[in-house]
Amino acid sequence: MKFKQILIAILTLFTAVGCTENFDELEKDPVAMSANPAGQLTFTQLSMSGDGFYQWRANLIYSGGFVQHYAGAWNVTEFGSKFKKDDGYATALWRNGYQNELKNVVDMIEKTGGDPGASNMNAVSKIMRVMVAHRITDLYGDMPYSEAGLGFSKGIVTPKYDKQEDIYASFFKDLEDASNQLNSSGGTIKGDLFYKGDIVKWKKLANTLRLRLGMRISEVKPAEAEKQVKAALQGGVFTSNDDNCIMNHLDATFNDDPASIDFRGNGLAYALNGNENGDHFSTLVIDFLKDNGDPRLTMYATPKTTSGIVSGGPIQPGESLYVGVKPGLFQWDVPTGASSTSGIQAYFKKKTTPFLHVSYSETQLLLAEAAFRGWVPGSAADYYKKGVEAGIKQLEIYGATPATQAAIDAYLNAKPLVAGQEKVQIATQLWITYIFNSIEAYSNWRRTGYPVLVPITNADSETGGVTPKRLYYPNDEMQKNEAHYLEALARMGGKNDWLNKVWWDAN
């Protein structure tokens, strides 16, 4: 059943992007799909945001709960706010990220290597491998990378867990090589749903990822971080929202059953619907937007429908229409009822909701921090201003009513980058721009420590209110890959504990 769903999705989307090669072979011989880099590229791009299984668990429940983007839904509060362990939630990205994504991009690299006519496909495959693997290592720590996905081609069925520091060194090399490799005579990029084969945009994506990952190691290896950030900027990063890496999803059946997922719809939207409207933005999100006069408040949230003073009654004069749910509370714990809190705009919950992987807003905000550190030329305040403006305008892709330029300018003029507050302001704006990509927000929060989160005081918190520093490995790695699994655990004190920090987390 799972293969049938995958095949249907790939064939449908090949039609959408004009890539119809090898249809006969795919239909007659399903195994042929594994040797088709174009099909594997399509499938991997779909999986990264269409996988409702881990979008629900790793992105919404755990990462979204940890960084307090969301509050109120039962699972987000019980597990993401109270920090309770659930093996299925914690291991979802590890399992599906390897199976559906990393294996495919490794195959793509193997199939296209050494073929001048497939040089661009090979370069894109390298970029995709970094995109896939950096989410896994950032959530879990050490992982198989150099030997991952080589079971069939090289017989490596128990790959070693590379140290995260070494993995990052490989990331930087892969991104540099891929950017240099992309060229006008390197063949067509087929099956590409991100950029439809645009080589210039893929180069920018490679360099922008290099910027993101360079900043990620800023606290643990600043000299190397500076080197990578400078190289990324010189190579050419995103220059407008037109460069954003977006997955445009289709009106496909929602499903998070690992055996029969249809990856064409937005997996996070599926999760938000699956939580039966229990998801709300947290008080931390709503109060930040409201207190700062941020135009994104109404673009993200809906107004409450009943009073926060009179339970179930009409809204009273002077009441704010926008109220979040406090992290640690279930929606039914709100004294005046969940309807007295703001909802999430409906356009974020559609099957066709786009997913934003990498943005110009993020790029400018990271450059603002790099400029503040003295690593790149330019004004941190100018980068910051551009990053915030881009973050407001990027919400238009979802169907939000555009903010007027006058409203944007008024906000930027009222809330400029302030001397002495640079790190907290930049990190907080990244946290806002990463809403709906909470995995990235969680990584940046661990790196910077900002924003300061609402203390979790629930008596039944399994960590005593301490936010986990990583997700933990699947326990069956002990049976599947015992020696290398134990080596990885030994490097973190011998315990598969989610309070252990990953290598780059020096905060």
Measured between the Cα atoms of the first and last residue, the distance is 45 Å
Helix content: 40-55%
Q: In total, how many beta strands?
A: 6
What is the helix/strand order?
A: HHHHEHHHHHHHHEHEHHEEEHHHHHHH
Principal-axis shape: globular
Low-confidence stretches: 1-34
Strand order of the largest sheet: 1-3
* Mean pLDDT over the residues: 92
Structural class label: mainly alpha
| Radius of gyration over all CA atoms, rounded | 22 Å
Please work out how many helical segments DSSP would assign. 22
Structure explained in plain terms:
It is built from 22 helices and 6 strands. Helices cover 50% and strands 3% of the residues. The protein has 507 residues and is mainly α.
List keywords for this structure.
single chain; 507 residues; mainly alpha; two-stranded antiparallel ribbon; two-stranded antiparallel sheet; 22 helices; disordered N terminus
In short:
This protein has 507 residues and is mainly α.
Record the SSE blueprint:
Layout: H1 2-17, H2 23-28, H3 37-50, H4 52-66, E1 70-71, H5 74-81, H6 87-90, H7 92-112, H8 119-140, H9 151-154, H10 164-181, H11 199-216, H12 222-235, E2 245-247, H13 267-274, E3 280-281, H14 283-291, H15 296-300, E4 301-302, E5 343-344, E6 355-358, H16 360-372, H17 380-393, H18 405-414, H19 422-433, H20 438-448, H21 477-480, H22 482-490
Antiparallel strand pairs: 1-3, 2-6, 4-5
Helix pairs in contact: 1-3, 3-7, 3-8, 4-5, 4-13, 4-20, 7-8, 8-10, 8-11, 10-11, 11-12, 11-16, 16-17, 16-19, 17-19, 19-20
